[in-house]
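Researcher: Next entry in the queue.
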Amino acid sequence: MEKPNLKTSKPRIILGAGLAGLSAAFFLQKGYQIFEQEPQIGGLCRSRCIDGYTFDYDGHLLHFRNKFSKNLVRQLLGDNLRCLRRNSGVSLLGCELSYPFQAHLFGLPAKVIQECISGFIQAQLKKDRKLKPKANFQDWALDSFGPGMAKYFILPYNRKFWNIPLQNLTPQWVNDYIPVPAINDVLRGAVAQSKKLIGYNARFWYPRRGGIDGLISAFKDQLSCDIEMRHQAVEIDLAKKSVRFSNGRGVKFNQLISTIPLPEMLQL
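Model: Structure for this entry, 268 residues:
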């Protein structure tokens, strides 16, 4: 695609070359120009190779709820995609447990197992448990798992993960992300090592090579639009339909797609 003359034309532009910006450009195919503040594309969906090992900037596992998404990623990655079985663990009280904690208590001190199971069964047997919506995540965790599991793992893990008071976190997002196993599964995982796969990420898809950056590269290879790096937006003027960048450059637009995090965009 011929690069537009930004001094006279008003292009359609995308702010941000992360997964959202790149996928938007992929479906629009042409007529858009992308501006990215970093020296490389991908946002948090990036990887680095250090001493022969590949590290992702953040955890990225691919799950597909519909055939369209699955077929799209297969189309993009081709043979650079494989299905993996989760191999995660929990280190607690000097014991190495399988994940998720709530279904793999075997190996913990007997007193801790008893406390966790007793609290979990009592919580599950409350007939009105699902009839009363919980105002925050902490209440939901206590109500779903009982005080033992909540104390030893569910609350401290999520407090560390989200880095905010759990009373300020709503429980509506939970869905399948934090599995609440059946009582029989908890008992089975308490008396012996259980191999039953529990949780939405028990199996997942991931690139064979290049880390999650392989998906970013695959999107980029399909784009026909330009990507301008080191362009941090500092002002968006909706009346004049213009964007000003930290390097002093100004760009007029007819249409704008912003993938900048909302709290940051509101400051512009």
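Model: The chain has seven helices and 13 strands.
Researcher: Noted, moving on.
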